[in-house]
Amino acid sequence: MSSQNPQAALEEPSRPRHRADDQPHHLDDTEHGIPAPVLAAGAPSRKAITVPVVTSLIVGAAFIAVFLAAFHAPTSHRLPLGIAGPDTTAARIELAVNDLDGQAMSFHRYPDAAAARAAIAHDEVPAALVTDAHRHLKLMVAGAQGPSAIGSIQATVAAALGHPIPVSDTVPLTQHDSRGLSIFYSCFGVVLAGYLFAVSSYQLAPRMPLAARITSMAAFSAASGLVVASIACLALGAIPAAFATTAAVTALLAFSLAASAGLIMRTCGPAGIPLASIALLILGNASSGGILPPQYLPAWLTPLAYGMPPGIAVRALRGASYFHSAHLATGYTLLACWTVACLTAQYALDRAARSRTRSKATMPGLAQASA
After folding, report:
1. Predicted local distance difference test score (pLDDT) of residue 354
2. Is CATH 3.10.50 what the domain over 79-169 is classified as, yes or no?
3. What is the pTM of this model?
4. Radius of gyration of the chain from Cα atoms?
5. 250 pLDDT above the threshold of 70
6. Are strands 105-110 and 79-84 parallel, antiparallel or unpaired?
């Protein structure tokens, strides 16, 4: 056995020893939990840069355009105004308001102040001009309609009459909701959560069976209702409606939003994500009437206030909170119908897809039999 020269061993340059830890780390080392085939199938760099930029700009531009169009300079369009007083006084008031702006208000006459007060309390009109025993005018308002709407009515009436008149708030806001925006913010949060729930469900399991999807939606909706009612009713007292009513309305809102967004994504694929955000987050919230009554919206946006889930829920919760449950039964019905309609459409799409799959599977067999 030949012996090695210690000096030669010292002079021999050391060779780098390659270990697994010395190898450069790939990007997928930092993507925990994502399978390698999924990472390998990522979009090309140009598409990965362009698509998010374009999509985000479209959604952002839509948000800015819709909300600025709706609220940059809001004016009322045939806002209901009650009048209780002699015919000559009522006619003079109507003429003065119409001379100022012929489209600003519509007029509803009542036999006396008590009838006008009842109409305000049941959300038939947001305000009413009444005469007292000395034939002096007074403006009764529902402060629960929000300071912006009531301030606009006061300004219009004062400008038409040429002087301010006394104001009586017959349906004031709760002390824990001084600006009247708690219902809007609560519903906005539910809409946002419903959209995010639908997006994450679609991305994780785009072909989840409808029965499992409905179960997931039901669990999410029930939890949403309980969370919103716990925060808004119990913790803050910002929504004066009953806990059970608030939970039920917001749960139905969450269910209808999740079903709507799911249907859009089921129909449009990946493009459904920005489309759902525009339809539900932007148009739905802008038209909800939570900031200003629907009569202040542009004509093209007003119909959405009465047909989309956010507007339906806002009116139902406001009625339950301040106006003797006005619009509550209608809200329950419309939100339930909206949800059932979306789920029925998804069922029809799934059934049609299964039918097409079976047809393609039987075609090779038919071809071989004919041969």
Report:
1. 84
2. no
3. 0.84
4. 31
5. yes
6. parallel
